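Practice problem: Thioredoxin domain-containing protein
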Amino acid sequence: MSRKIVLVIILVFAVSLTLTAESFAEVKTKTADGNSFTFPEDALQTGPALFAMAISKTRQNGEEQQQILLQWQTYFNENPSFLAGLPVYHFPVIGSVPFFVKGAIRGGIAKTYAPFIGSDRLAVVFISDAETFFAQAGIPIDEEPTLAFVVKNGTIKGFLKGGVTEENLFRLKELVSGNK
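Answer key — structure tokens:
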């Protein structure tokens, strides 16, 4: 009898984890080439994806995170079999800015990323409340860039912080393997 109770408790716990899975809030934005884009939905239309996200409270740190994410992209470009076809999208996340500077910001970021990734895989996500946005996603805001593995239904399966290191390569491989 006690074994059945334990199994029921485990089942209830597993179901509650699925129901409370973290995900990103929807944001309407544009890709680097100016096409309308709904984050994260449009990135997940063909299946799971890896989101490379610069998340910062300062411009300087945001630019530093972008450079680290471009190092990741260089690694992926040079080692295409590492992700076995899993698409990578870059989403610099920027807090409230006046609408009339969004185009200039988007253009500057697009120019920086152009040698590394197609414009259809880059969209600046402008949000009004970064704390709430990332709290909902279960991702802390710190001074490190984030790689988030997101499945087709929008659930964040996991994330890692930092640059291209042996430890992070191992963690990323573990995160994405078997979850496609």
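Discussion: The beta strands are 27-30, 36-39, 49-55, 88-94, 125-126, 146-150, 156-161. Students who identified this feature from the tokens alone can consider the problem solved.
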